[in-house]
Amino acid sequence: MDNFTYYSPTKYIFGKEAESRTGEMTAWMGASNVLIVYGGGSVVRSGLLARVKESLGQAGIAYSELGGVQPNPTDTKVYEGIELCRALGIDGILGVGGGSAIDTAKAIAAGALYDGDFWDFYAGKSIVERALPVGVVLTIAAAGSEGSGNSVITKTEGLHKISLRTESALRPRFALMNPELTMTLPPYHTACGIADMMAHIMERYFTSTAQVGITDRLCEGALMAIVEEAPKVMADPFNYEARANIMWSGTIAHNGICGTGRAEDWVSHFMEHEISAVYSVAHGAGLAVVFPAWLTFMASHKPARPAQLARRVFAVTDTDDTAAALEGIRRMRALFRSLGLPLTMSELGIADPDIDLLVRKLHENKGDVIGTYYRLDSEATRQIYQLCCQG
Amino acid sequence: MDNFTYYSPTKYIFGKEAESRTGEMTAWMGASNVLIVYGGGSVVRSGLLARVKESLGQAGIAYSELGGVQPNPTDTKVYEGIELCRALGIDGILGVGGGSAIDTAKAIAAGALYDGDFWDFYAGKSIVERALPVGVVLTIAAAGSEGSGNSVITKTEGLHKISLRTESALRPRFALMNPELTMTLPPYHTACGIADMMAHIMERYFTSTAQVGITDRLCEGALMAIVEEAPKVMADPFNYEARANIMWSGTIAHNGICGTGRAEDWVSHFMEHEISAVYSVAHGAGLAVVFPAWLTFMASHKPARPAQLARRVFAVTDTDDTAAALEGIRRMRALFRSLGLPLTMSELGIADPDIDLLVRKLHENKGDVIGTYYRLDSEATRQIYQLCCQG
Q1: I want to staple B195 with a disulfide (CB 3.0 to 4.6 A). Which of A36, A47, B228, B288 is the partner?
Q2: Whole-angstrom Cα distance, residue B336 to residue B347?
Q3: Residue range(s) in chain B whose domain bears CATH number 1.20.1090.10
Q4: Which superfamily, per CATH, for A185-390?
Q5: Where does B59-186 have alpha helices with state H?
């Protein structure tokens, strides 16, 4: 087991009407003049934004708004938020929505207290040492940003989609998680969220660090729970229990508890980031295509852990590792198919992907040889992108 | 799923030489004059106490000492610590050792800032609203106190052993966890620790709240990891990887992540507390006797979850719930036996237990009818104590 630090000081308030505690919790985190960051109109139409404001008002907390955050959020909105913070004396940020709103909120929180360009953090030129406190009202079970110290932003110029990881500087102080708020999410986006959280666990699961049984078992347990609950939320979007299990699983998947004590391997996420940056597909949908392709490559190059995943999570009984791995991939794809997710680039809506471009950008952003479970050069990642076309 | 709050802000520093960061982390938690609370001579003999002091000295932190905490720690030592804190202007407590040292450190931390008798918190007469910050250097994988907000203290007068639970007021600010420090623990105490952490998970697992699959799966995963690693640490106490897995499992078992979203059932712990308070046996050894007895009672009264535990953790294949539950208990007892743990009261060294006394004290302390998975009156708990005699 590798030495590690685990520090996850987010306070989770989970359950019905959790959003009614926005004001109380914002005061708890020490803010009195906050910027509410959100995305599209659904937060407005559902009445959630009004309830959030009402709760803030009752607690005597001043607020301003920054709406219009897009999926695959960009630096443009972050710069806008940083300007607002400085102009208005903002002392805390509330992300209301899913990963895009929360990741934007985090980027603003870091940038507002930084003299240089906030992109320095994402470009690896500077480390986040302080940030405005961030609170979250979660409406989408997917990205896990409500419990992580991470943020993914796309630089408009050059379409560089980069993930910033911090140990704790950007972890939300609190997350209000009412599963009812996720019930009206369209089925396709629900399914994309499920693929995203499964990937978050698997990218921690595929490790080169041996003998960390406790972390393996936690990963497998969380994956099994998701595999069991996913068909229930698709069959009945208003099944509270299933929505609650999926929502909490999304947090468990990404708050770090599934990654303690070992190296992680985020190549599938990196490969998908290039796809969604260039083609603007939903991140989770891209992962449903990339992850099985990555696994298929591993089945013939390093099948041990794909086989363990297949046996323990997907109840595969083959004794041969490669055969077990391939059968596990088949079952995972069958699950994704049943959820309505795409399995190939063309199903993702990309008829003729520019694989040269994807490979070049991937290695430009992440280095010549990437991955920890198995080291991949540009020839190998090209093969995986090609596998994404075959399904 | 029940509404819940989960807040676990302990910073875990895990791995080799973690204790060398005592000074740095004590400063991080904002203390400059600490009381070091520890138990017997092993912390002194091993040189750990000297290393802790050296680290504090290097960080410019003043310290005083309170040694001599006994297993099943009592109020006497807590009062002594509170006096010291007030006399010396202590602003932080370091618990160095296992659960007894840490639980005593927490009780002192709460009592030092309270005008009344610290026992008020344990007697349910007052709620801990503030406490001195507590840091931990862990030497025993067992109690999970390094990551919990709980503390168990025995009132000398009347031998009342009571567990205090706080959401976060008594959670350690940091825990330094070097698995090497657990390698010299005698085999019997290693085994007792394993029984204790398994019980911490199972008492969260046995719930009356339906449909919390994610929490079930995390519990089962942690239990499977412990079942796999326990024989390894017994076979080779110096197996670092196995020690590390067991140590982190002990934290996972008790930091709350295995209990989110549902009622818990701590009757087995309560029943054991009466045994160890009266007969001064090791807590984990008592649990190895009580838990299978409690499960045996449930196999004939409410076998559904004991059967699920048997199938998912102990690979039992019986389709009948009662049969599956009983086979699971048989396998759990076989594991405990292989670890060198007692299975009956007489093996625990209690030839003729005063069951009348245990039942009376249990219900005096905890109420006429106890338990959430299944409600137990004094006739039922008497039957379970009797099952403890049979093995």
Answers
A1: B288
A2: 12
A3: 187-390
A4: Dehydroquinate synthase-like - alpha domain (1.20.1090.10)
A5: 75-88, 99-112, 119-122
List chain B residues with CB under 8 Å of A215: 248
Selected residue of A6, A207, A252, A254 to mutate for chain B interface (largest B Cβ count, 10 A):
A6
Q: Which CATH number fits domain B11-181: 3.40.980.10, 3.30.1360.70, 3.40.50.740, 3.40.50.1970?
A: 3.40.50.1970
Of A5, A13, A260, the CB nearest to B248: A260
Quote the pTM value: 0.97
Task: Give B211's contacts in chain A (Cβ within 8 Å).
Answer: 241-242, 245
- In this prediction, residue A15 has a pLDDT band, given cuts at 50, 70 and 90, of very high
Smallest Cβ–Cβ distance between A249 and the set B3, B11, B214 belongs to B214
Phi, psi dihedrals of residue A47, rounded to the nearest 5°? 85, 0
CA distance A295 to A143: 21
Count how many pairs of residues, chain A against chain B, have C-beta atoms within 8 Å. Answer: 140
Strand partners, A38: A96
Residues of B in contact with A11 (CB under 8 A): 5-7, 9
The CATH number of the domain covering residues in B187-390:
1.20.1090.10
Rounded to whole angstroms, the Cα distance separating A174 from B353 reads 49
What backbone torsions phi and psi does residue B5 show, to the nearest 5 degrees? -115, 130
Q: Which residues in B lie closer than 8 A to residue A229 (C-beta atoms)?
A: 213-214
- Of the residues B215, B218, B226, the best mutation for testing chain A's interface (the one with the most A CB atoms within 10 Å of its CB) is B218
Task: Report the chain A residue with the minimal C-alpha distance to residue B7.
Answer: A11
**Numbered ranges of CATH 3.40.50.1970 in chain B:** 11-181
Nearest to B217 among A221, A240, A242 (CB): A221
CB B257 within 8 A of CB B7: no
Distance CA(B364)–CA(B380), nearest Å, equals 15
Measure in Å the smallest separation between the Cα of A346 and chain B Cα atoms: 34
pLDDT tens profile A191-239: 999 999 999 999 999 999 999 999 999 999 999 999 999 999 999 999 9
